[in-house]
Structure formats: C-alpha cells, structure tokens
Amino acid sequence: MKTAELRQKDVAGLQAEVKDLQKAHFNLRMQKATQQLNNTSQLRSTRRAIARAKTLIAEKQSAAK
User: Fold this and answer.
1) Which of 16, 42, 49, 53 is 20 to 30 A from 59, comparing alpha carbons?
2) The pLDDT of residue 52
3) Where are the alpha helices (DSSP H) in the chain?
C-alpha cells in the first residue's frame, strides 16, 4: 500500500493494517522456513510496509497531542 493511501486512514485503520501486515509477514517467514517461499523480496517489502504504517501512527498520535 502506498504512503498516500495510508495517510488517508485514521489511527485505528492504521493499527488494523499493521496487524494484517504482521500476519502476512509471519506467514512469509513460515514459508521461508519450510522452503516454500520463491520470492524472498516479499519479506523485505512487508517489513518496510509495517515500519511505514507504524511511522504514520506515531506521526498522527504526536500531532493529536
């Protein structure tokens, strides 16, 4: 998901997105461990997407204070 799309969500929506991304990242890690993952770059992209969403959560929470 692009940063512009994430910026349109509220904090609750971003937290739900982080939760979904963490589940996806876990599934990718399990696929890698069982030698079923073909595209290992997906691990990197999901990890960065989680970080991007968490950064936006922190920005919105600090702006609300």
Assistant:
1) 42
2) 96
3) 3-7, 11-33, 41-64
